[in-house]
Write a structure and sequence with these properties.
mainly alpha; 4 helices; elongated
C-alpha cells in the first residue's frame, strides 16, 4: 500500500489543486482523470512486476481520495468566505427557486465535486494500466489446461 501512496499523493495534488483554481476548475473531471493516469504511470514505472487493472483502480481511488481532501480543504473555506453570497444572489436574480439554500447548497455542490473527483480519478487509474503497462503477462489469463496427449505422446490419466 505504501508504494501506491507516493503516486497517489502526486496525482491527487494535481487533481485537487487544479479543481480549485478559477476558470481551470471547470475541467475538474479532466484533472481528476489526468491525476489518476499520472498515478498509474508512476506506479507502473516503479513496480518490478506487471500491474493489473485492479491495482490501477486502487491507485486511482487513492488519488481521488487525496485530490478530494485537498479540494475540500481549499474550496470549502473559500466558498464560505466569498462564494456563498454570490451564489445565492445569482439564483435570486435568475428567479430559480431551490429547496436548498445557503450552506446546504454549498455542501451539496462540494460533495458532488468530491464524488466526481473520486470517480474520474479511478477511471484514469484503470485506463492508465493498458496504456502504460507494456510488460508481458500484465493481464494475460493463465493458459488452458490440455487433457490431450502429453510430450511423450500418451494420454494422461483421467480424474
Amino acid at each position: 500500500m505504501i508504494d501506491k501512496l507516493k503516486p497517489a499523493l502526486l496525482g491527487g495534488l494535481i487533481a485537487g489543486i487544479l479543481s480549485v483554481v478559477p476558470f481551470v476548475s471547470t475541467c475538474c473531471c479532466i484533472w481528476a482523470a489526468l491525476g489518476g493516469l499520472l498515478a498509474s504511470f508512476m506506479y507502473i514505472k516503479n513496480s518490478p512486476a506487471p500491474i493489473s487493472t485492479g491495482e490501477g483502480a486502487v491507485v486511482g481511488i487513492l488519488t481521488g481520495a487525496v485530490g478530494s481532501l485537498i479540494y475540500v480543504i481549499i474550496q470549502l473555506p473559500l466558498a464560505l468566505l466569498f462564494g456563498l453570497a454570490s451564489m445565492e444572489e445569482q439564483f435570486r436574480r435568475s428567479g430559480i427557486e431551490l429547496p436548498l439554500s445557503g450552506i446546504a447548497l454549498l455542501l451539496l455542490s462540494v460533495v458532488l465535486v468530491v464524488f466526481l473527483i473520486l470517480i474520474f480519478s479511478t477511471i484514469g487509474g484503470i485506463v492508465g494500466v493498458p496504456i502504460f503497462e507494456k510488460r508481458k503477462g500484465a493481464q494475460s489469463p493463465p493458459p488452458p489446461q490440455s487433457f490431450g496427449a502429453g510430450p511423450s505422446g500418451q494420454y494422461g490419466t483421467g480424474l
